[in-house]
Amino acid sequence: MSLYMLLRNGVEVEGVTIVEGNIAYEQEVNNALWALEFVSGKVNKDIKVYPGSDRSLVKSFKTVENVHGKGGIGDEVVRPKKLRPEPKRAPQAILELADRYAGELEFLAISPLTNLALAYLMDKSIVEKVKKVWVMGGTIYGRGNITPVAEFNIWVDPDAAKLVFNAGFDITMVAWDLITNYVVEEDEWERIKAMDTEMAKFYVRIYKHYREFAMKHQKMRG
């Protein structure tokens, strides 16, 4: 959904990188390619997918299929029909894009920060080349979603987060505390379903499982 909204609003998306996270890594790659096959047809844009790190820098971590389902969009396991990931790894792709679009490139992380941390370790000059880093992660007031005080994206790889936050990037962090204040209310959810468009069906398909989990276990409104 983030990708679709960016493209619909005229943002030039130069690539998608995959990192360890919610579910099995191979399925994360498949999900990205599958979603891109749907989105690319709507916006007439070919976007490359670069596989990155399948583990955190130092610590071990656990996936959370109980939250997102074994397929990441519920228990449905999807696979792309045609698209395949690039042979180039994500940290190298990030560095090359930073060189190509120095002073313009913005990095949106809705995941752990491992790939960006690895790119930084490979070439610290990336800090001067990346215009902005947007991070969906962390918590300000101590309400977590993986432990009582930790948010998942930072918890998965705290060492990567420490590197990135201390590197000197211009960072805006959108914390879990903030996200929980902006949910899809029940009346909005019903209106989306009633639209019965291809995009509305896609949204309901990928969000339904997590929405139900969030309402039941995280006491969120939607």
TrEMBL record:
Pfam families: IU_nuc_hydro (PF01156). It comes from the Archaea. GO terms for molecular function: purine nucleosidase activity. Residues 2-219 form the Inosine/uridine-preferring nucleoside hydrolase domain. One of its GO terms (biological process) is purine nucleoside catabolic process. The keyword Hydrolase applies. One of its GO terms (cellular component) is cytosol. Gene3D superfamilies: Ribonucleoside hydrolase-like. This is Nucleoside hydrolase. Transmembrane segments: none annotated. It comes from Candidatus Aramenus sulfurataquae. Keywords: Glycosidase, Hydrolase.
